[in-house]
Amino acid sequence: PELAGASASIEVGVRASTPDGLPLVGESRTAGVILAAGARRNGWLLAPLVADMVAAYLTGADPGEDAAAFDPRRFEG
Ligand SMILES: Cc1cc2nc3c(=O)[nH]c(=O)nc-3n(C[C@H](O)[C@H](O)[C@H](O)COP(=O)(O)OP(=O)(O)OC[C@H]3O[C@@H](n4cnc5c(N)ncnc54)[C@H](O)[C@@H]3O)c2cc1C
Question: Angle at the Cα of 8 (from 4 to 30), degrees rounded to 5?
Fold first, then answer.
């Protein structure tokens, strides 16, 4: 009942994407927060690669040759 007069906005989305169509995998601008999102329609296909990259970031290993292309901070000026 407390929410009877409350307003809300609802957002729904599928196949979250990025401007260049590549996912966001790696360190975010917030220290210690690693992203693995925005795989659009290829999330199942990319899952093994993304999992390996996230594991590498977490353990300090080399994230591989796709690191720059998937860097979440690539859209920052
Ligand atoms: C119809 C369809 C067919 C597809 N077919 C294929 C295919 O054949 N091959 C392929 O590779 N990919 C396919 N995909 C894409 C694939 O499903 C996605 O790329 C993949 O699921 C993305 O995984 P994700 O973990 O990044 O995001 P998601 O699977 O979307 O997971 C995100 C999770 O975060 C939760 N969440 C969101 N906001 C919040 C919040 N504020 N608080 C708490 N939790 C939150 C959501 O409930 C969800 O559980 C298809 C997608 C669709 C819709």
Answer: 135
- Return the C-alpha torsion angle 32, 40, 46, 33, nearest 10: 0
Domain ranges, ordered by start, for the chain: 24-75
pLDDT tens track for 36-50: 999 999 999 999 999
pLDDT at 13: 79
Report the predicted TM-score, pTM, of the whole model to 2 decimal places: 0.85
Please state, in angstroms and rounded to a whole number, the distance separating the CA atoms of residues 77 and 75. Answer: 6
Residue holding tokens 């796709």?
A: 66
Query: Which atom of ligand 1 is found nearest the CA of 14?
Result: 53
Q: Closest residue (by CA) to atom 31 of ligand 1?
A: 37
Q: At a CB cut-off of 8 Å and minimum separation 6, what does 13 contact?
A: none
Measure 14 CA to ligand 1 centroid, in angstroms: 7
